[in-house]
Design goal:
This protein is α/β, with parallel strands linked by helices. It contains 9 helices and 10 strands. It has a single domain, classed as Histone deacetylase domain (Arginase, Chain A). Helices cover about 40% and strands about 15% of the residues. The longest helix has 20 residues.
């Protein structure tokens, strides 16, 4: 079965302004990386716009309405010092969430084993009632909720290897034993959450990494903490918050991974999904701010999904 590839032109229209690290060039670099012959078998799909009702299963109605109402008609608006929106941001955010929902639906329907969503703005910092950290709506959390509510899956897992802790995803599911959340991330670091002692209702596994950690520490965190817990959870569906800013070349953090570490972790997650979830995986883009490192890392990640 092929791997699905969801993206939308509107995601390039989310303009964060000069000098902002979360810029449209990131997505252009991903598109270019996945145009080569090795990715000819990707099935490319255009996502729908997410209905606000889908998003409101994660975010409060007033949050969703407030974000969409805040989108300016010209120039830029700031939701916080890091999170900038422009006239195209509302459409981009709806298409980003819609991509993950459509991917979940397609994989649950057996149209493919797995999918990758190349979208922006990213989502894993967005809390139920707060946009932050470049994120407006929590795309992966919306997808996980879709898997449970529409496809009646009792055990859904979200795993996150972005260098920043997915505080929004943790906040969305910390009291929900039907969702597992596992994350490796630099700590202490932005956004300040993600200590090992943060365990939710027993469904959260955080594996904090110190600044300067590399492949040895990263692989040990996953092999010894997150992957065994994920396997014990026996997920019926797995979603990945695929951030590539733990790469050695990334300017925003201090973890030293390379593209082969992303190939390894993708294969490890896919193997657990094969055992427990019929191989069903949906991955969505989060961080990654060095364009060359991002392109190389996404390429190895998607290749590993295709090989799963």
């Amino acid at each position: 079965m092929t791997t699905l590839y969801y993206t939308h032109q509107a995601c390039l229209g989310h303009d964060t302004g000069p000098g902002h690290p979360e810029r449209a060039e990131r997505l252009r670099a991903v598109h270019a990386a996945l145009e080569g012959p090795d990715f000819a078998k990707l099935e490319r799909r255009t996502p729908p716009r997410a209905e606000t009702a889908w998003i409101e299963r994660v975010h409060r109605e007033e949050h969703v309405r407030g974000i969409l109402d805040a989108v300016p008609t010209t120039d830029y608006a700031r939701l916080d010092p890091d999170t900038v929106i422009s006239p195209g941001s509302g459409e981009a955010a709806l298409r980003a969430a819609g991509a993950v929902v459509a991917a979940v639906d397609a994989v649950c329907a057996g149209e493919a084993k797995n999918a990758f969503c190349a979208v922006r703005p990213p989502g894993h910092h967005a809390e139920p009632s707060r946009a932050m950290g470049f994120c407006l709506f929590n795309n992966v959390a919306v997808g996980a909720t879709r898997a449970r509510s529409e496809h009646q899956l009792r055990r859904v897992a979200v795993v996150d290897f972005d260098v920043h802790h997915g505080n929004g995803t943790q906040a969305a599911f910390a009291a929900d034993s039907g969702v597992f959340f596992g994350s490796s991330h630099q700590y202490p670091f932005y956004p300040g959450t993600g200590a090992a002692g943060e365990t939710g209702c027993g469904n959260i596994v955080n594996a904090p990494l110190p600044a300067g950690a590399g492949a040895t520490e990263f692989r040990a965190a996953w092999s010894e903490r997150i992957l065994p817990a994920l396997a014990a959870f026996a997920p019926q569906f797995v979603l990945i918050s695929a951030g590539f800013d733990a790469h050695d070349a990334d300017p925003l953090a201090a973890i030293s991974l390379n593209k082969e570490d992303y190939r390894w972790i993708t294969a490890e997650i896919a193997a657990i999904a094969e055992l427990h979830a019929g191989g069903r995986v949906v991955s969505t883009l989060e961080g990654g701010y060095d364009l060359n490192a991002l392109a190389a890392s996404v390429s190895t990640h998607v290749a590993a999904l295709m090989a799963a």
